[in-house]
Amino acid sequence: MSSSIKSLLPYQPIKTFYLTLVVLTIVIRLPLWLLVSIFSSTRLTPSFTFKQNIMVHIAKIAGHHFSLTHHHSTLTLDPGDEGARFERIKPSTKGIYKGVLEDQEIKPVEIGGTWYPDIPSRPSTTTTTSDSKKKEEKKRSGVILHLHGGAFVDGDGRTKTLGFAASLLTKHTPHNVFAPQYRLASNPNCRFPAALQDALTAYHHLLHTHHYPPHEIILSGDSAGGNLVIALLRYIIDTQPSTKLPKPRA
Known about the structure:
Blueprint: H1 3-6, H2 14-36, H3 50-68, E1 86-89, E2 111-116, H4 131-139, E3 143-147, H5 159-172, E4 176-181, H6 194-208, E5 217-221, H7 224-238
Parallel strand pairs: 3-4, 3-5
Antiparallel strand pairs: 1-2, 2-4
Helix pairs in contact: 2-3, 6-7
């Protein structure tokens, strides 16, 4: 595809027409993918399940063509279906955004994040906590700061996109999970270092608003989120001692 044609794909009605053709292409190819997914020897990776192999085929096609049309996910600070589990976080004012996080155009902003299974009570809170919530919190210690995947262009850490993964983390660990809604590079004025700024904002929030000691914080991420975890760890180490950011447990 020529560069001149690619430049037209983000604009309507060309975008809708093009994505409709992509969907039709996936439908046409689906019988072949079903066939090659039956036997492990013909799957993309022999260890893939039947369902995994089909979903990866679809994701590869969809991801490539959605990127050509500059598809982006709209993020909002409205709690939505998450309700009280969604928390808004203002950026730190303690001078922690240094070096690579200093940018003339991209500044730290207010972000949101979703708690699983529920938002924990803060030590300083004066609100009444229900007996059932108190019992649940006694079972849980520490927190997993989980950064979602999505190639830095998709995802929001909310229940519809991360609920299954978060449920596995809360089921198999004794920790709460907090998934920040970091800015996506597919949105205007959200290029690097926006996502890393937001990851740091979330980490600082757990330390100084929820008062988790660093040895009770675990960083976790999948795909792009895993990349962001590595970047955040590198930033924490490289900016010592000026930022005074403690290292997490893991």
